[in-house]
Each structure stands twice: as C-alpha cells, then as structure tokens.
Specification:
Blueprint: H1 5-23, H2 31-42, E1 46-47, H3 48-55, H4 59-71, E2 75-80, E3 83-91, H5 93-113, H6 119-138
Antiparallel strand pairs: 1-3, 2-3
Helix pairs in contact: 1-5, 3-4
Amino acid sequence: MSEPIGFLISDTARLYRRAFDARTRDSGFTSLQWRLMKHVQSGEGARHGPLAEYLEVEPITLSRMIDRLVESGLVERRPDPADRRARLLFLTPRAHALLKSIQPAAERQAEAATEGLTSEERARLLDLVRRVRSNLSRRVED
C-alpha cells in the first residue's frame, strides 16, 4: 500500500524541521523563527496577519514570537502609515548578519535532504513541490 501524499509531505517536513533545528541549535534559532525571519527579509514591512497565516500559527503565538525577536534586537515593529492600528515588521542589521551566518547550515540541510539526487532531479523536485503548493493554495476547502 502506498502512503497518501499528505502523510508523506507532512512527515518529510517534520523530519526536515527536526534536522534543521539540530543543525542550528547553537544559534538559538528554531526552524519556525528562521521561516519567519526569511519571510520578513523577502518582504520588509510584513504585516502580522498574513505572516501568521503563512506560518500557520495563531496570531497570538506569532505576536509572542515577534516579542521575543524584538527583545533580542532582531526585529523592529514600525507603524503602518496606511493603518495606524497596524504594525509592520522589519529586520535589524543584527538579524541580517545572523541570517547570513546561518545560511550555510540551511544550505547543508538542503544538500543532505537531496543527497543522491542529480541536479536535474533536484530542480524537478522543487518544480513539482512548488506546483503542488500552488495547487493547494488556490483551492477552497471542499
């Protein structure tokens, strides 16, 4: 009997996060914090709501995580000029340096995860996973 694709993807993601956390343990960074900060880095001025949805965490959980990153001097909350109730997230220079220092571990993790695959297979895998993600992100619950 073959495994359902959802189980396979979920189990793979869990194992990937566990291995990433082990590789970056000395940094004090978790895979969830890495994802949060990489997302903010790719779009400085991120808002809490969409970020919580992207990370699949409750807004209060995200707020607590951001509080810790603010206290650590890694993230700044700035007022949103378009909405005085909202705050936008920006990385500090310290965060950019930390992300840069962790990048080699992230690259080693990706290498380990795709060990034994040719460069063409790796490219194909990324393309297929992106397409699955795109398919799922467009779907409304049935």
